[in-house]
Amino acid sequence: MTLFRVFAATFLLVSLVVLNSPTFAVGHTSNNPFGFIHRLEGSRRGQSIEGLRDAKHYLQKFGYYLNDDHKDTNVATTTTHQNDDEFDEFLEAAIKRYQLTHRIPVSGALDRATTAQMMIPRCGVSDHGLVVMTVLLAEDQNKSEDYRFFKGKPKWNKNHLRYKFPKSNPPAGLKEATIKAAVARAFRSWENVTELTFENVGGRAKADMQISFYSRDHGDGFPFDGPNGTTAHAFQPRYGRLHYDADEKWSDDPSPMEMDLESIGVHEIGHTLGLLHSDDEAAIMYPYLNYGQIKRKLQSADVKGIRKLYGLP
Ligand SMILES: [Zn+2]
Ligand SMILES: [Zn+2]
After folding, report:
1. Would residue 131 count as lying in a domain?
2. Domain of 201: which CATH number?
3. pLDDT at residue 94 in the model
4. In CA terms, which of 153, 200, 231, 295 is 20 to 30 Å from 249?
5. Confidence at residue 17, expressed as pLDDT on a 0 to 100 scale
6. Cα 211 to middle of ligand 2, angstroms
7. Domain with 54 in it: what CATH number?
């Protein structure tokens, strides 16, 4: 009996280790919400391939379906093929915008360079503003800015901002102190280049910003998707909500199979301060960040953007 228990426990342990091993970092596994993209590699206009509907929804969710006025549009209003697997002209146009935005040769097909980019874990906030800017830039070579603001340029109307961690449910294996220290460092990066100051006021106090970990559907209309896929999101000023996906593996010193708390924190704080995505791959406000990647230092696009928004030279 005892021996059986030891055996059973060992077996369970081995299963857990196996379940947690590399599948996490490899992009094209069944438990990766962006894994479907891998199967679509090589597809092009005129074809019908199972899963193309998911590519349409991905490109719509992240802002690549535009109408003639460059407004963000629902696939359903653009095409009758929103829920089928037809590679139509609207999907091709959305892929071209995606390729243009991410500086991939524009083929309009789901070639390898495009599918590889699409499968990288990313921020859940739409790239819409960035896509519009890219499309307009392609039409007018004279304009050039590598930062972008929310519509109407919302920003905070005071320089001292208070934040808190209202829900103390750190993902298993992660210490609350580790999270708080990483987030504090992320705030400091923005403090260093602006006149803004940030203060952690503790769980019960009134705060401007709230930082939480959530799984799947959490009531704000932007459900998370489990491990990989979208890893975090945040809202524009002055809503002040910053959410980490609790199903990712988080760390302040990430292995290739963990996500960096501070890198994602700096990016998402950028949204809560009023910045949208940048197409500069080096910028903190670039929407994609892989497991194991560390990117904590603000780049010139980020600094120029935030200083412009808050009226600093
Ligand atoms: Zn983002
Ligand atoms: Zn959320």
Report:
1. no
2. 3.40.390.10
3. 95
4. 200
5. 30
6. 10
7. 1.10.101
* H helix and E strand count, the chain: 10, 8
Task: Look at residue 138 and tell me if it is in a domain.
Answer: no
Number of domains the chain contains: 2
Look at residues 119, 138, 172 and tell me which one is the last residue of a structural domain. 119
Percent of the chain with pLDDT over 70: 84
Ligand nearest to the backbone CA of 267: 1
Ligand nearest to the CA of 215: 2
The domain of 69 spans: 36-119
Residue 114, domain member (yes or no): yes
* Catalytic option among 50, 139, 176, 268: 268
Residue 60's contacts (CB-CB under 8 Å, 6 or more residues apart) are 74, 75, 94
Q: Which ligand is nearest to the CA of 124?
A: 1
pLDDT at residue 21 greater than cutoff 60: no
Residues making up the binding site: 123, 208, 218, 220, 225-226, 233, 243, 245, 248, 267, 271, 277, 285
Which amino acid makes up residue 171?
P
Is 15 among the domain residues? no
Tell me the pLDDT tens digit for each residue of 136-195: 777 655 445 778 888 888 999 999 999 999 875 678 889 999 999 999 999 999 999 999
Do residue 113 and residue 164 come from a single domain?
no
Does 145 participate in catalysis according to the annotation? no
CA of 201 to the centre of ligand 1 (A): 25
Peptide bond connecting 238 to the previous residue in cis, omega within 30 degrees of 0 = yes
pLDDT tens track for 219-253: 998 999 999 999 999 999 999 999 999 999 999 99
Q: How far is the CA of 68 from the centre of ligand 1 (A)?
A: 25
